[in-house]
Amino acid sequence: MIISGKELSARMKSDMAAQVAEFPEKYGRVPHLAVVLVGDDPASVSYVTGKAKASEVVGIKNTTIRRPADISEAELLSLIDGLNADEGVDGILVQLPLPKHISEAKVIAAVDKSKDVDGFHPLNVAALWQKQECTEPCTPKGIIRMLKSAGVQISGKRAVVVGRSNIVGLPVAKLLLDENATVTIAHSRTADLPSVTRTADILVVAIGKPRFVTADMISDGAVVIDVGVNRDPETGKLCGDVDFAAAESKASVITPVPGGVGPMTIACLMENTIECFLRKMK
Ligand code: NDP
């Protein structure tokens, strides 16, 4: 079974559109997401465009604020302060990565926690790890949604997450743990990685290496979630971290790239924006 993130995210967005259509009458306005884009990195421009398009489908107001790559850290922090103070803004997203002269940690911490639709603010991260109310980061949230939509039982299963980044590996491991999986986190220093990945009932791969996970690293019938977004060095086309063609025959459930985790990340961003809006309104 191939889980189509494209189809699932389209259903989510259509449900959200129906929900948001009632907001002007209930709350006097629709949610407003402010997206800050620094510089013109093509991948970042394409992600920001995708977020604006999804906002339009859902009926969320989207303001994309573009600043040149040479903006100073102080100027960017002051822009964020302004958005924090703006009562009409419900969600703030600063597209990463930022130019080297700007501290991402400072910028992430500068966003008001209640408007942190990415779920990257240290207080949101702490709340996630303490099982308190929080904004869950979009990609991990989307992954759990995909597993549930496919009827995958998570509780009691052995999950292996390859990758330990703050935005994917660590939080998805925590969410899987919250769903009562037994979780192993593997990384670049893991010894004999294939023997670890072969223990997985559910294998989540987020490393950023084209087709790195081969069929021999997957046990028969495993559920494989491919988070990677890479350019295939030979064809130049988008591909994941998993060798899909080879893995498909071994996995019971697998996600494609493109059209898998990526669209779910954006749908969950829309959901997070609505959640931040509703917390404020209620
Ligand atoms: P990072 O570069 O921040 O982290 C990569 C992780 O992979 C690190 O923990 C690293 O280990 C580990 N790793 C690297 N090489 C190996 C290896 N050979 N064996 C085992 N582990 C390895 O990446 P991100 O988490 O930000 O992103 C990962 C991928 O997911 C990228 O392709 C990115 O584009 C994609 N992505 C997709 C999203 C979506 O919506 N579909 C959203 C976010 C990311 P170590 O810690 O030891 O260095």
* CATH class group of the largest domain: Alpha Beta
Using the coordinates shown, work out and report the CATH topology of the largest domain. Rossmann fold
Termini separation (Å)? 40 Å
Number of strands: 10
Derived from helix and strand composition plus strand pairing, the structural class reads: alpha/beta
Fraction of residues in helix: 40-55%
Count up the helices: 11
Main sheet strand line-up: 5-4-6-7-10
Tally of separate domains: 2
Q: What is the H/E string? A: HHEHEHEHHHEHEHEEEEHEH
Description of the structure:
The protein has helices spanning 5-21, 23-27, 42-58, 73-85, 104-110, 122-129, 138-149, 169-178, 193-197, 244-247, 261-281, and strands at residues 32-38, 61-67, 91-94, 158-162, 182-186, 202-205, 223-226, 230-231, 238-239, 253-254. The chain is α/β, with parallel strands linked by helices. It folds into 2 domains: 28-114, Rossmann fold; 138-261, Rossmann fold, CATH 3.40.50.720. The strands form 3 sheets. It has a 5-stranded parallel beta sheet. A 3-stranded parallel beta sheet has the order 2-1-3, sandwiched between helices. It has a two-stranded antiparallel ribbon with strand order 8-9. The model has no long low-confidence stretch (mean pLDDT 98). The structure holds NADPH dihydro-nicotinamide-adenine-dinucleotide phosphate (NDP).
